[in-house]
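Annotators were shown the component list below and the corresponding predicted structure, then asked to write short factual statements about the assembly.
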Amino acid sequence: MCLSIPSKVVKIDKERNVAVVDTMGVTREAGLDLMEEEDVQIGDYVLLHIGFIMNKIDEEDALESLKIYKEIIEKMEEEDRRELIEADDNCPNRGV
Amino acid sequence: MSELQLKDLYEGFRNPEVIKGFAKLINEEAKQLKNPINIMEVCGGHTHSIMKFGLPQLMPENINFIHGPGCPVCIMPKERIDHAYILAEQEDTILVTLGDMIKVPGSRGSLQDARAKGADVRFVYSPLDTLKIAEENPDKKIIFFAIGFETTTPMSTALIDVVLKRDIKNIFFHINHVTVPEVMVELIDSRDEHVDSYNNRIDAFLGPSHVSVITGSKIYEKFPKEYNRPVVVAGFEPVDVMEAILMLVRQFNEGRCELEIEYKRLVTHDGNVKAQALIEKYFEKASLFKWRGLGNVPDSAYKLRAEFAEIDAELVYADILPREEIEDHKLCICGDILRGMAKPNECTIFGTACKPTSPLGSCMVSSEGACAAYYKYGNLI
Ligand code: SF4
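Structure shown to annotators:
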């Protein structure tokens, strides 16, 4: 029930207080009743839950997390490479 | 054009390489832990995600998951489901609720059964869909059976807001909204003399994702301070969960006991203030709410404020709604599972008498419940 999927705002209908959002390529409407006026703009990423926008996704923060994750992968790959080289260096069959 | 793509938000936080990276870091750092730690994920969404992505298998031996009570349909007691069933049976009445409620059995059966017997029960995606049903059926009474934690509570109040502002006369509300911090307290410090929750095994909490989007992280402040349990508010994606676990392990290793937020892209200290104001406007705390599997938990639910008695189905239909308590199934050990004293497969009727298609206890009721998640993703498949 809590599966709230990130969506992107593509249109805003002020009169009806709803936004049109893109969720994984599907367009649908979501109520803006829980958001302050002017808080949600076209192009924003938002979290949708049972027909309402419940909050905006902080882009800077999402990017920051993704950057840290990339560094973790890179570091892990480097360690894996180093382990491989070390194992090779210490190979008892060297010179055979 | 923004740097961030929608795709990043779906894929970046479930990237298997990142999960592996965090698993390595957690295993590394967990070597320094003085004692094993039991981490409770309070929210059923986390339970589902943890089982689906096989995260317990990635943990070292000294880190154990305890699956919490945060599945709103699982915790719905039979008494309340019976209310919905009885309301649905009334003449010229349409009972409206969220789809999750379909299969949950009360003592008379589920709402699906009620519908099969001719009752008009409608399952909607959003509370606002109720408006259309009311408009199309002006001669009928529409009862919205509201369920969910703090995540869905403001959506119900948004519907109430429209109903009152437009002076719609044929929509009523049966409120079953429950709150997270009170049940967390119950699990570690029960005030019920019959329940020995002091023996619980919970060392730390993974704070719920979307409850916290609404409430803010502030609702967990007392756990590190008064109960000596650290809390890290985590997103739903597997990478979020892994990162949050690493944060908890680091707290233990560094001798800290704090409230931290991993899910910073959506959770702030204060949360969604407008949503909170809507809840405050229409609801107040009910003094007691019975949780299926756990029993009565003080101050753990909302009810409509007295001034809105006219739309409160529990008052309007007080004459026909039974008040007697109904016992949970005797063999069900959900209460112990939620306190971290047992795992689902230790229940003697797990997977035999109790299955997702015929649940006998609360944890088997929806895919977010611990027993259902074990059944689906355990080796019983
Ligand atoms: S398997 Fe069923 S009866 Fe046993 S603890 Fe889980 S929900 Fe309760």
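Statements collected:
1. The mean pLDDT of chain A is 89.
2. The beta strands of chain A are 6-13, 18-23, 26-31, 45-49, 52-56.
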